[in-house]
Amino acid sequence: MGTYAFRRILQSIIIVAVIAVSVFLVLRLSAGDPARIRAPVFARADVIEQYRREFGIDRPLIEQLGSFIGNALRGDFGDSFRFQAPVMDLILQALPKTLMLAGVSLALSLFIAVTLGSIAALRPKSFWGWLSSALAAFGQSAPVFWTGAVLVLIFAVGLRWLPSGGFNGPLSLVLPAIAVTLSILPTQLRVLRSSMEAVLKEEFILTATAFGMRQSRITFVYALKNACLPLLTVIGVDVGYLLGGVIVAEVVFAFPGIGELALVALNARDYPLIQGITIITASTFVIVNLLIDLLYSRIDPRIRMEQS
């Protein structure tokens, strides 16, 4: 277990380092000249050169890369061209709101997937089985921007129960969380239902049923523990989507999270901010997947035996 954990941690560090260097090189080669973007339209050449010295882009590329890596290790991603503020401060203002939205959405989707998926697997021809299939089909076919617009139209404009956008407290999370939940729920629901259906046919489940144990205990204690293993992999993928893919939901609801900040940075070609957001979100995604891999090996003894 210790060797496996060390190897996975080392792999994660290498992945984050490769992502950081790749983002730096790609942005330097494709983002254009930020000095010309920042300077007035009819700025003189000496003014543009002054901006280049200020941004540090007048130095050789390898020197910029060394400086970037050294500063990034200290958590310093430079100053934003667009906001004229430290990149880390901007990220720290937006990231907690995105994590809050992602956490609420993930918890809500897992609750629905585990509860409804388990009941649907146990009674596939009941109303719950039909509801599970219908909800998965709806979530798969309805894009986030459409779901968000419909929710705003009904609950914010029509009924006036909830705010239409921005962030002014917990109520502001309700509509974006529902829209994001519907987008990640179908995969979780289908994976858990099919996994649960397979586990319920295992011999140890049939034996427990023959001994007269309560069905709820068999389903939600013994079967669910084994059926959740594939769901852990799906959660790892969903976390990556939630950290970077909620940009659509954040734009629809004017939610001041990391997705909206990334969109502003892209439009302004603010590559210090783009670099910071990409590295922070990628690092978070890698760390979450590392934890899921370690948790996977703890839950499933077969993986520990293969590692040994």
Properties at a glance:
mainly alpha; ABC transporter permease; 308 residues; transport
Structure description:
By secondary structure, this protein is mostly helical. The protein is built from 14 helices and no strands. It has helices spanning 2-30, 34-38, 45-55, 61-73, 87-122, 127-141, 144-158, 171-199, 203-210, 215-244, 247-252, 258-267, 271-299, 301-307. The protein is flat, with a radius of gyration of 24 Å. 31% of the residues are buried. The mean pLDDT is 83. It comes from Hoeflea algicola. Residues 95-296 form the ABC transmembrane type-1 domain. This is ABC transporter permease. Belongs to the binding-protein-dependent transport system permease family.
Number of strands: 0
Low-confidence stretches: none
Indicate the structural class: mainly alpha
User: Rg from C-alpha positions?
Assistant: 24 Å
Order of helices and strands: HHHHHHHHHHHHHH
- For the report, how would you describe the main beta sheet? none
What portion of the residues fall into strands of 2 or more residues? Answer: under 5%
Mean pLDDT: 83
Distance between the termini: 8 Å
Helix percent band = over 70%
How many helices? The count is 14
Outline, from the CA principal axes?
Answer: flat
Organism: Hoeflea algicola
Subcellular location: Cell membrane
Protein name: ABC transporter permease
Keywords: Cell membrane, Membrane, Transmembrane, Transmembrane helix, Transport
Concise account of the structure shown:
This protein is mainly α and 308 residues long. The chain is 79% helix and 0% strand.
